[in-house]
Amino acid sequence: MGEGYMAAMPANAYNWVSVWRRNFLAWRKVALASLLGNLVDPMTNLFGLGFGLGNIVGRVDGASYIAFVAAGMVATSAMISASFEAMYATFARMDAKRTWEAILYTQLTLGDIVLGELAWAATKAVLAGTIIAIVAATLGYAEWAVNSLCAASNRSHWPRLRDLAMVVISLAPSTSISCFTRRSSSRR
Predict the structure, then answer these.
(1) Which of 10, 29, 34, 138 pairs as cysteine with 111 (C-beta 3.0–4.6 A)?
(2) Of the candidates 1, 2, 4, the residue with the CA atom closest to the CA atom of residue 110
(3) Is the Cβ–Cβ distance between 48 and 28 less than 8 Å?
């Protein structure tokens, strides 16, 4: 490997945690507004489609239409949250706020930053999906959410949770490869 590629590799297995922690501490200040924002749009769609269109459609394969839509809203909420965090918020920290530049003056490498940002995007996806699943299960629209939470306590279901983790990890490549390229700019 060339010297340029080594700069993009994580320095060790744990440096990314400091980037994740920095993002968490910054997010904690606006956590309530962020969680409510992640909750409002999917719940509006859930109720609008579930009750509005659900009265016309009826049942889908034995389940109510709102229960059918609830599963899609959980997945959509997680995907949108991860995509937004990995694209827009990460770009803002990299370009406008220049947080990445400040972090690169420490012992962290570009790979540590990218890995920390990806872990943070996955965390936000899990939070967003879990919140919608909890609300849908509380309202009685997501029996599968209650079953999966009960399955988490049973060790024989760990392969299913591993498969869920693979879905979350598959969201990680949504960041642009352009974050690894150097930019010739007059701001330096």
Answers:
(1) 10
(2) 4
(3) no
Q: Supply the pLDDT for residue 3.
A: 63
Q: Which domain holds residue 52?
A: 13-179
Please give the Cα distance from 17 to 115 (Å, whole number).
9
Q: What is the pLDDT of residue 26?
A: 92
pLDDT tens-place string over residues 51-85: 777 778 877 777 778 877 888 888 888 898 889 88
Q: Is 134 within the bounds of a domain?
A: yes
Number of independent structural domains in the chain: 1
- CB count within 10 Å of CB 76 equals 18
**DSSP string spanning 67-99?**
HHHHHHHHHHHHHHHHHHIIIIIHHIIIIIS-H
**Of 183, 34, 175, nearest to 115 (Cα)?**
175
8 located within any domain: no
Single out the residue of 157, 177, 154 nearest to residue 165, CA to CA: 157
- Ranges of the chain with pLDDT below 70: 1-8, 143-188
What ranges make up the beta strands (E) of the chain?
A: 59-60, 63-64
Question: What pLDDT, on a 0 to 100 scale, did the predictor assign at position 175?
Answer: 43
